[in-house]
Write a structure and sequence with these properties.
- This protein is α+β, with helices and mostly antiparallel strands.
- The protein has a single domain, classed as VSR Endonuclease (Endonuclease, Chain A, 3-Layer(aba) Sandwich).
- Helices cover 46% and strands 19% of the residues.
- The chain contains 6 helices and 4 strands, in the order H-H-H-E-E-E-H-E-H-H.
- Strands 1-2-3-4 form a 4-stranded mixed β-sheet, sandwiched between helices.
- The termini are far apart.
């Protein structure tokens, strides 16, 4: 478990590459919402053996954007395990499909905001699934 708490230095180069090569949905969420959000988010943030798309340390919240490959059985299982591992560290993970960013951007932003506020207040994550139906 201690190894999960510390950032893996081997992921530094990979995280830097991911920052340079963000998807269009990651760029949109970062530049149009999260870059100036308070409390602060970081992008392509190493946590343990993983790199999360966006991370708010103040809320212990990771935001992941999922392309189509994340909905294949093997990828879903890996994502579930990753969420469990991060949860063991006290980090909540919320996921949005890329098409939600493209088609319902404001709802994604509102959902992230509600989740950050809930985590900081020590409340459970709100159910955001209904807001993001496309």
């Amino acid at each position: 478990m201690d190894s999960m708490r510390k950032n893996n230095p081997k992921l530094k180069t990979a995280a830097q590459s991911l920052r340079r090569n963000m998807t269009k949905e990651e760029r949109r969420l970062w530049y149009d919402a999260l870059r100036g959000y308070k409390p602060r988010f970081t992008r392509q943030h190493p946590l343990g053996n993983y790199i999360v798309d966006f991370y708010c340390a103040a809320a212990h919240l990771a935001v992941e954007l999922d392309g189509g490959q994340h909905y294949e059985a093997e990828s879903t299982a890996k994502d579930d395990e990753r969420t469990r591992q991060l949860g063991r560290l006290g980090i909540a993970v919320i996921r949005f499909p890329n098409n939600a960013v493209n088609q319902n951007f404001q709802a994604v932003c509102d959902a992230v905001d509600r989740c950050v506020k809930a985590r900081i207040a020590g409340e459970p994550l709100p159910d955001i699934s209904a807001e993001l139906i496309i």
